[in-house]
Amino acid sequence: NRQYYLAQRPASVPTSEDVPARDVPVAEPAEGMAVIKNMFISLDPAIRGWMGDDPNYIEPIAINDAVRSSVIGRVVKSNSPELAVGDAVMSLGAWEAYTTGPAVAMNKLDESAGLPLSNFLSVLGPTGLTAFFGILDVGKPKAGETVLVSAAAGAVGSVVGQIAKIKGCRVVGMAGSDDKCAWLKDDLGFDEVINYKTCGDYGDAIRKACPDGVDVYFDNVGGEILDAALLCLNKFARVAVCGWISTYNDADAPGPKNLWQLVAESVTIQGFVVIDYMDRFPEAIGQLAEWVMSGQIQFKEDIVDGLDNILPAFLKLFDGSNQGKLMVRIPEE
Ligand code: NDP
């Protein structure tokens, strides 16, 4: 079983010394367990957080353990009445070819609609659900309000913006290339876009794109963009803190300087993790599927082939070269 494991905690951008490969036997399934052959391994910015040892919503990855990830796989061996060989499941697995785990923690996927299984990691999976609950429950957008989204062309951000459009908001997206900005505006119907790599002063660019100010800032990046957005908020604005990707590889990144704006404008700021909403996943998946089928939500998946490409693929999240939900595919034999 080829695995990529955490040999040491990365000091900055993870390297092949931090995350080397090894081959180990596939663990046999004890009673109640099953073995899946992984087909898709989800690559999420959160994994970078689990490689460190700061307090988090889930335990850090232990040194010498395979790097934890959501996976989609097919059951190849089962020691549980819950799962049969051939079932497709989603589970918390690892950067490895085969995952052995408890059957109760493997969610059987419904293949009857003929959807590509990768969709269960993207728009109908954790990133789509993050967008759904983050914008609706935390951002609480009202028709006519202005919603600003950072990392707007990413897996979470692109869905956030489209949901805000469905709710009648004016939506402004920030992304790191002209191609990404063009996709947001021309295909997804964002009202305005900012290429934050070429726009100059972030505050000026946000004020120009949001002449009526910002009512909801959906924060995927933290750092200087958050600081600039804080200065553009309207009275009673909401800041939904989803992630701070600009800081994940930089332990010395300074914290936000403009938090006083929370007082000045009576702002609500709230962080959240998608697993807070687990009870409501079925409802949200139903709604997301409806929007996808009606064409109101479009999405991109960036699928990199081959387990041995997993570390360079993961780093695409941090240089912005991923186009949509990033994952690695291991071909079925
Ligand atoms: P994306 O598909 O958005 O990929 C990451 C993108 O972040 C890159 O493509 C890049 O886009 C942008 N980015 C990278 N570095 C920087 C930087 N220094 N400054 C600004 N932008 C940067 O990933 P996801 O949609 O999976 O995740 C987006 C955010 O959501 C992350 O912060 C993640 O941690 C968070 N998240 C939170 C969850 C929760 O439950 N709270 C669950 C899932 C994700 P560009 O080209 O535009 O720079």
TrEMBL record:
PANTHER family: PROSTAGLANDIN REDUCTASE, PROSTAGLANDIN REDUCTASE 1. Signal peptide: none annotated. Pfam families: ADH_N_2, ADH_zinc_N. This is NADP-dependent oxidoreductase. Gene3D superfamilies: Medium-chain alcohol dehydrogenases, catalytic domain, NAD(P)-binding Rossmann-like Domain. CDD domains: PGDH (cd05288). InterPro entries: ADH-like_C (IPR013149), ADH_N_2 (IPR041694), ER (IPR020843), GroES-like_sf (IPR011032), MDR_fam (IPR045010), NAD(P)-bd_dom_sf (IPR036291). One of its GO terms (molecular function) is oxidoreductase activity, acting on the CH-CH group of donors, NAD or NADP as acceptor. It comes from Oceanicoccus sagamiensis. SUPFAM superfamilies: GroES-like, NAD(P)-binding Rossmann-fold domains. Keywords: Oxidoreductase. It comes from the Bacteria. Residues 12-328 form the Enoyl reductase (ER) domain.
